[in-house]
Amino acid sequence: xxxxxxxxxVYLKWYEDxxxxxxxxxxxxxxxxxxxxxxxxxxxxxxxxxxxxxxxxMEENDRxxxxxxxxxxxxxxxxxxxxxxxxxxxxxxxxxxxxxxSMHMFSKEHNFFGGHGIVGGQIPLGAGLxxxxxxxxxxxxxxxxxxxxxxxxxxxxxTLNLAMLWNLPVVFIIENxxxxxxxSVERTANHTDIYKLGLGYEMPCEPVDGMxxxxxxxxxxxxxDRARSGGGPTLLEMRTYRYKGHSMSDAQHYRTKDEVAxxxxxxxxxxxxxxxxxxxxxxxxxxxxxxxxxxxxxNDCVKYADESEFPTADNLYKNVYIQDDYPFIKTF
Amino acid sequence: xGRVIQFREAIAxxxxxxxxxxxxxxxxxxxxxxxxxxYKASKGMLDEFGPKRVLDTPIAELGFAGIGVGSAMNxxxxxxxxxxxxFSMVAIDQIINNAAKMFQMSGGQFNVPIVFRGPTASAGxxxxxxxxxxESWYANCPGLKVVVPSNPYDAKGLLKSAIRDNDPVIFxxxxxxYGDKMEVxxxxxxxxxxxxxxxxxxxxxxxxxxxxIIKEAxxxxxxxxxxxxxxxxxxxxxxxxxxxxxxxxxLKKTNRMVIVxxxxxxxxxxxELITHCQEHAFDYIDAPIIRVxxxxxxxxxxxxxxxxxxxNAERIIKAVNKVTYRD
Lengths: 332, 327
Description:
By secondary structure, chain A is of the alpha/beta class. Helix content of chain A is 41%, strand content 9%.
């Protein structure tokens, strides 16, 4: 497939989308402090270019699956963000009606297959989605995301081997944000070029500037084309950075404020904003209008989540089995 | 019309019949295709269905179990064979954290119609790592169903139901049952999950068991019958969900119960049944319920140690004599 042109409207969409994701996550952090969101909360701030560039490369029926830093991916695929905020708050209006919470967003309608809490557990699932698409000849490609920490799990290596053996239409995308929780990449292996792990399986692999949506798009488009045309899997290492802690409870003693500031100079939203301004794609007034829309939509999300109810107690039993009369054991 | 077939043939027939009626079903596992199954439970299936639907995997249980679950989220109905459930321990993350949880975590969007099947428990002198019974481990986990047939007829009817089930099913066989023979109908039949079977009717004592170890209960019942003690043997067939009603009904008739289970004693199906009976049938129990389980140790290698480890007819007879106050 020829590369899509990155036009003015693409830049403007990227800008508005990424800004919205950033503000959505900031609001989630605020709600966490207010204790409206509980449990764990892992924010995507800083990594937005990976998602923006990837989604631009996806076709209608392509699939996406990721780990637990997963609030904004379904939004990018078309899920109503209000439902994501409601899920974060544990409300019935949420994507999983309050069953999943922060780490478990899903949308069958929009081909978003989660939202998975166990590091590396989603990697074989992604290959499995691709296995089904190959078997059923749907032509769809699966983008399977993971963090840099996940590549040290056995599930990663077993899946890379099987995906090559069975020539599955899947793109493995490592979001290398430098840290597996508080442990830097250098402290998890004797090598740091993670993409090279593909070489052992003879899988096409490359590092990508994960702060630049254009670089991400080009790499994912090429990999998706390869998968779609029967060329099998690709391993991409997106070199990115997260501005926030691993989760809300992370004091971030493992890195310096200077390091964070250094990466923020390469901020993907800043990069796109600069292009828009340099090329005069939008006036200051138009950019203000985008900011205002983003702010309003974030507020709408909070309002919807606030107004939605917690699930009633009987819902605990509703979605454990698809069998509707499963005889649960009930104790005193 | 019936004909006598082996347990392994019943398994292959169940899978093949279901695969003929539903193109989305496929089988994968170690040695299932070209080798015809490590225990020949998939004999002839590669020839009939081809390599797209009968797939040999490398020795990578975590990886292929996860691919199975993922494919089940996206339109397929996989049968994943473990050469033994001892090896499912390296895949257990995919079973417990993904297969069992997906429907709830996704708020009912993604069910996982998958069957994980293979032999469980001991099979001769295979020592500690190859002799473990994980029925009660899997049965402990909400989201799964756990089926443990004890004969070829049940195996075929239950496996067909398991494959058609839309929830994840753990289906546990035994290396020591694959050669068992029994008359099985030519025509199609299904056995519903969650229903126990009265394997032998009797009025003096209830013996509850499941899986291959139930054959020790059969032997014990034969011996006891010679002494005029009539045992009723209940084959649970499914250990999640458990057919409690069948157990309680029998207990109400006999008032005495022995549970035979090849499993470590701490928190197993036996303890669950005892709890249930004292909660729901306290007034019908005339003697403390006794369980005959494995030793509270890993199984060791030497024949003397295997004998010490496993439940057997001799111990079951002792237990029956105790609950009937004949000791």
